[in-house]
Amino acid sequence: MKNLYTLIMAGGSGTRFWPRSKTAKPKQYLNIFGNESLLQDTIKRFATFTENEKIYIVSSATQATVLEEQTPMLPKENLIYEPVGRNTLPCIGLAAMFAEKENPDGIMVVSPSDHLIENNELFKDTVLAAAKIADEKDGIVTIGITPNYPATGYGYVQTAENITGAEKISQFKVERFVEKPNEATASDYLKQGGFYWNSGLFVFKVSVFLKAVQEFAPELYADLRKIQADLGNPSYPQTLDTIYRAVESISVDYGIMEHAKNIYLVEGNFDWNDLGSWESVYLADKNKDENGNAGSGETMFLDTKNSYVYSEDDNVVAVVGLDDVIVVKDGNTTLVCKRENAEDIKKIVEQLKAENKAQFL
Amino acid sequence: MKNLYTLIMAGGSGTRFWPRSKTAKPKQYLNIFGNESLLQDTIKRFATFTENEKIYIVSSATQATVLEEQTPMLPKENLIYEPVGRNTLPCIGLAAMFAEKENPDGIMVVSPSDHLIENNELFKDTVLAAAKIADEKDGIVTIGITPNYPATGYGYVQTAENITGAEKISQFKVERFVEKPNEATASDYLKQGGFYWNSGLFVFKVSVFLKAVQEFAPELYADLRKIQADLGNPSYPQTLDTIYRAVESISVDYGIMEHAKNIYLVEGNFDWNDLGSWESVYLADKNKDENGNAGSGETMFLDTKNSYVYSEDDNVVAVVGLDDVIVVKDGNTTLVCKRENAEDIKKIVEQLKAENKAQFL
């Protein structure tokens, strides 16, 4: 598709992946499976149907070194650095301002940088189906993942009218976006049907998206226009810094998707895992041994079941007599965690931050 | 005491202390508690009542570097290297041959190098009481630890006639030495009374011990005499190597103590811990936090109880949601072990050996 732009959001800090995820090299830059990073996998996935010149990445200045190192295939000017993180709406808005200068009628796919997606062919077909709707109906299209269990870790999208025609991939009008539910509510959603996981994948025409920003977040819109007006000038970095720091931190879901009317959903049936925690990595790992143990590097398991161990090159990690644990050894930091407590890793990171222990972060 | 010699046996490999205990630096050279190694603590303990010139250490040639590094206070000629380990009887016999050349009437205290002993004053009084018996009765004296639970990890010594006179420290004739019992037998021993843990601390007159070797291990005795005859000659290292490699591997308990008649026991009431495993270290650690966690270095415990963590300098180890675990991070090796499986660590070491992974051993 000629006028297709991709925006990969790579500014996250991935604290639940500590200790591998560090300030200077968060989750998206790690090779969790295979030899390439999640970001590189993401770029590759889009590069099969998007020109490299039309792939943008928004990230944080603190990640510039690793980002440039991992993206030699992209033009440097496509790497956009936020002075500070302000959640997804300002981030996407900023990138849309870049794209608008090239082509206001361009179709932009917004994608997280740190998800695991298999079936790249089906992924491509799904994105292109979404792009077609975005183009033809001037809608904002989200890709919804067909849920296979009542997850409480994802937001959901409830669909309305089924508008699938001759297409192989189902498409719907969207009724509403809902935040992460509790387990009972999630079970209800699955029983009721018509609910999808919010994948964070959005597709829209640049002009349509910016119009929605203008309508639902007018202050942000004005600020983004000021930034855009200074693009290419020597004063631009200072302008960006001053204005962007002052914008409200708000998600695209909350700021736009929950309000706009022209929202569509395309069903995503490709293998998808947001790798939200080490627990997700354990579950997604397809190379488990006969005791359900998985991991990376040189590992030894003795009387140990259903555990995940990450060991660095030239290291060994041995686990003895434990079930359901996650062990991650990375440089000067080691984590040992019960699988069910994987979400609590961010508390460790918070504590280290509070204690100013930057050497471990 | 003027004619008192100390022999510290420091040739052990301490595989149950992996991964801190490595081939080139086994357990006795580690600072488990405090700043000095267990060996250095042992030397200090004896140095308060033994001249440094009379403290011998038997170790293995593979440990020469770390041994010399840690023993600047001792004459180099007091460091005796076995070409190979042959258990305690050949080791003590070899050292006795050295001591005999200086003073056959000297009293020798044999001590492990890797035990934790507190109350140094009481320890000294106990050793001196044993030395007095060894000297006056020409007996071989063992120091028996008063058991406070039915341990299955130690050998026991059953006492016979109580021969305590005016002394403050109880002393007995010995009935027999028994190997590590099972739990039921150990419980019986405690109920029955008169049983002590075999501490590995022995005291004897050099000539008396060598006479016992001659009587109960005549082949070894002849071999040791040949080695002694070559002491100081250029051919000595070769002689030692050739003969020592061929001697039978046998413990002093099995080779002498279970057979000799003139055996005595002096009661040891000082705090004693053989630090047989990481579990012993956990139990012996007196600096536990309110959740029963202990350790060394920078550690973080979240929803974790009764665990022991060793973290190296400039490292952090975080444990989340686990109880009763041992975590030891040492260089390129990391161990995570349920406390009750602490004895199985040696299986990990065996496996690494079998796989020729010397870089982790």
Question: How would you summarize the topology of this molecule?
Answer:
2 copies of one chain form a homodimer.
Chain A: E1 4-9, H1 38-47, E2 55-60, H2 64-70, E3 79-82, H3 88-102, E4 107-112, E5 116-117, H4 120-137, E6 140-145, E7 156-162, E8 171-178, H5 183-192, E9 195-205, H6 206-216, H7 218-229, H8 236-246, H9 252-257, E10 263-268, E11 272-273, H10 278-284, E12 294-296, E13 298-302, E14 308-310, E15 316-320, E16 325-330, E17 333-338, H11 345-354
Parallel strand pairs in A: 1-2, 1-4, 2-3, 6-10, 12-14, 13-15, 14-16
Antiparallel strand pairs in A: 4-9, 5-11, 6-9, 7-8, 7-9, 8-10, 16-17
Helix pairs in contact in A: 3-6, 3-7, 6-7, 7-8
Describe the structure.
By secondary structure, chain A is an alpha/beta fold. Chain A folds into two domains: 270 residues, Spore Coat Polysaccharide Biosynthesis Protein SpsA, Chain A (Alpha-Beta Complex), CATH 3.90.550.10; 83 residues, no CATH class. The first copy, chain A, is built from eleven helices and 17 strands. In chain A, the strands form four sheets. Chain A has a five-stranded mixed beta barrel with strand order 6-9-7-8-10. In chain A, strands 12-14-16-17 form a four-stranded mixed sheet, with helices on one face. Chain A is globular, with a radius of gyration of 21 Å. The two termini of chain A are 41 Å apart. At the A-B interface, β15, β16, β17 and α11 of A face β15, β16, β17 and α11 of B.
Any idea what the CATH architecture of the largest domain in chain A is? Answer: Alpha-Beta Complex
Radius of gyration of chain A (Å): 21 Å
The coarse silhouette of chain A is: globular
CATH C-level name of the largest domain in chain A: Alpha Beta
> What is the H-and-E element order of chain A?
EHEHEHEEHEEEHEHHHHEEHEEEEEEH
Task: Give the helix level of chain A as a range of percent.
Answer: 25-40%
Question: Beta-strand percentage of chain A?
Answer: 25-35%
Strand line-up across the major sheet of chain A: 6-9-7-8-10
Low-confidence stretches of chain A: none
Largest interface by residue count? Answer: A-B, 35 and 35 residues
Give me the secondary-structure category of chain A.
alpha/beta
Fold-level CATH name of the largest domain in chain A: Spore Coat Polysaccharide Biosynthesis Protein SpsA, Chain A
Largest sheet of chain A: 5 strands, mixed, barrel
CATH H-level name of the largest domain in chain A... which superfamily? Spore Coat Polysaccharide Biosynthesis Protein SpsA, Chain A
